[in-house]
Amino acid sequence: MTTSTLRGKTYFIRTFGCQMNLHDSERVSGLFDSLGALEVAEPAQADIVVFMTCCVREAADTRLYGQCNSCKSLPPAPSGTRVIAVGGCIAQRDGEGLLTNVDNVDVIFGTHSIAHVGELIADAFEQGGRQVRTEEHEAVDATSMPWHRATSYHAWVPIMTGCNNFCTYCIVPYVRGREKSRPMEQVVDEVTGLVRQGVREVTLLGQNVNSYGRDLFGEPRFAELLRRVGDTGVERITFTSSHPKDLLPETIDAMAELPAVMPHLHLAVQSGSTRVLKAMNRRYTREYYLELVDAVREKVPGIALTTDIIVGFPGETEEDFEETLSLAEQVRYAQAFTFIYSKRDGTPAAKIDDPTPREVILGRFDRLVKVIESTAYDFNQGALHTRVPALIEGSSKKNDRVLQGKSPWNQTVHCPLPEGAQVEDYVGRIVDVDVDLARTWYLSGQLVGGPR
Ligand code: SAM
Ligand code: SF4
Ligand code: F3S
After folding, report:
1. Domain region containing 393
2. Rounded (5°) CA angle 82-23-407
3. Is pLDDT of 1 > 60?
4. How many domains does the structure of the chain reveal?
5. Less Cβ crowding at N or C end of the chain, within 10 Å?
6. Do both 180 and 285 map to the same domain?
7. 157: nearest Cα among 105, 225, 107, 111
8. Cis amide leading into 241 (omega within 30)
9. Do 285 and 417 have their domain in common?
10. Are residues 227 and 361 in the same domain?
11. Strand arrangement of the beta sheet that strand 304-311 belongs to
12. DSSP states of 379-439 as a string?
């Protein structure tokens, strides 16, 4: 194979799933760019179509099969041949087994094989036939690959890959492998370079950032990493995800002391019932979680707390669910991702029978969503008639004369674009907004002064 085959070819990448996948797509895209391929906006214009897949819930699987099948009705590729590649977590889980659900896939590359996607695609063009690579361990560190960022002002920075936690419902440890931290110097150097390129916000990524460094130093060193990243001068630091069992007091102190660390913490609770948490192998209790929330709020007053919650874990009773509801009411989350439990083959929870009727689970889900909507609304009301700095990301989907940005508390902020100004003049800049409207999912107000 010669990767020069990719020169002049057009490519399109669609990404499903979490930020890890988004970042992996940026690496795949960076690799394609370095080989002379050109990104296009639609699969119809592409010689190479890549799907970066997720299998955390069943719906994500089904969506992939639909997307692959819809490629069959695309017009011919510009070069005459179209290669369809599937990467990410479904590719890692199923390998060639994927072909029982879709028959038009040419390349399958797992989560540890993204450094090889250029060769695999070149082979598919040159030799035809199916190319599959799903090794268990990464031979080439993907973080050393070129990188094509979606925006100039924000960067996802992986600080570790994999997960050691084996929550009983979750497929991630099986498709992403064990925790592997990047050397601290490497992360700090990367952020330093990003700051030089004009990046204003970095999001440190890991399935459980709080255990960062355990595999390197024998103990977690996330607080130290936060301080070192703070020293680079980057203006905004966010991170995700945090496992409550590993959130150390020193990390809360670093959050409180470092002005660049945004006052937002995503602390997945999953359930408010200690019994269910035990069955989920989360290794904390309801009481421990609530104490942690108090400790965080004491050190970082006004912090936006967000979470993930699963409804309908096998065997969840009405009583268990009411404990989740009451915990959500007590914590008063600024936002929450709520999920209906999805059985994942190969996980321990998949073996637990559950007699709970689907309508009961759906009913519980709706009740939880109502509580979250009400606490999210209340959280945003707290910003009414205050001035918030918003990092502008673009224009609102509904109105291209309205700017859209993010507050330090991770709130979506809207304000009108000044007469005669262009959205591009504001993207990646921070503006002050006097908030005069606070809704459940966004704030809106008037621009004060210019962008900085
Ligand atoms: N590592 C992160 C953490 O623990 O916070 C989350 C990773 S996972 C990609 C995102 C969320 O998906 C989890 O927090 C959980 O709420 C949800 N999830 C994982 N497996 C699930 C399943 N089988 N059914 C429903 N939701 C699931
Ligand atoms: Fe999945 Fe649990 Fe790991 Fe998060 S911590 S990725 S929920 S196993
Ligand atoms: Fe999905 Fe894989 Fe992320 S299963 S949530 S894309 S780690």
Report:
1. 387-448
2. 130
3. no
4. 3
5. C
6. yes
7. 225
8. yes
9. no
10. yes
11. 264-266, 304-311, 335-340
12. HHHTTTTSEEEEEEEEE-SS-TTEEEEE-TTS-EEEEEPPTT--GGGTTT-EEEEEEEEE-
Instruction: Check which CATH number belongs to the domain holding 439 and give it.
Output: 2.40.50
Instruction: Provide the token pair at 418.
Output: 């000044």
Parallel, antiparallel, or unpaired for β 402-406 and 443-448?
unpaired
Atom 16 of ligand 1 has which residue's CA nearest to it?
A: 308
Q: Which amino acid is at 221?
A: R
Q: Are residues 126 and 150 in the same domain?
A: no
**Residue 56 CA: which ligand 1 atom is closest?**
20
**Does one domain contain both 429 and 366?**
no
Q: Does one domain contain both 441 and 339?
A: no
With a 6 Å cutoff on the Cβ, whether 55 touches ligand 3 is: yes
Query: Is pLDDT above 60 for 420?
Result: yes
Residue 150: what pLDDT?
A: 85
Is the distance from the beta carbon of residue 336 to the nearest atom of ligand 1 less than 6 Å?
no
Helix (H, G, I), strand (E, B) or coil at 23: helix
Map 167-212 to HEC letters: CCCCCHHHHHCCCEECCHHHHHHHHHHHHHCCCCEEEEECCCHHHC
**124 and 176 part of one domain:** no
* Residues paired with residue 405 on neighbouring β-strands, in sequence order: 392, 413
Task: For 240-308, give the DSSP string.
Answer: E-B-GGG--HHHHHHHHH-TTB-SEEEB--B-S-HHHHHHTT----HHHHHHHHHHHHHHSTTPEEEEE
Quote the CA–CA distance of 418 and 41 in Å, as a whole number: 29
Q: Residue holding tokens 């028959």?
A: 103
Q: Assess whether pLDDT exceeds 80 at residue 417.
A: yes
The string of pLDDT tens digits covering residues 301-322 is 999 999 999 999 999 999 999 9
Q: Which of 23, 25, 28, 89 to mutate to test the pocket of ligand 3 (most atoms within 8 A of CB)?
A: 89
Give the three-class secondary structure for 163.
coil
Q: Is the pLDDT of residue 269 over 80?
A: yes
Residue after which a domain boundary falls, among 381, 412, 431: 381
Ligand 3 atom closest to Cα of 55? 4
Using an 8 Å Cβ cutoff, are 206 and 161 in contact?
Answer: yes
Going by alpha carbons, the residue nearest to atom 1 of ligand 3 is 54
pLDDT digits (tens, 9 = 90+) for 16-59: 999 999 999 999 999 999 999 999 999 999 999 999 999 999 98
Compute, in degrees rounded to 10, the torsion defined by CA atoms 426, 430, 433, 439: 90
Last residue of a domain, one of 84, 115, 138: 138
Which CATH number belongs to the domain containing residue 234 in this structure? 3.80.30.20
* Type of residue numbered 153: Y
Q: Are residues 311 and 397 located together in one domain of the fold?
A: no
* CA of 423 relative to ligand 1 center, distance in Å: 35
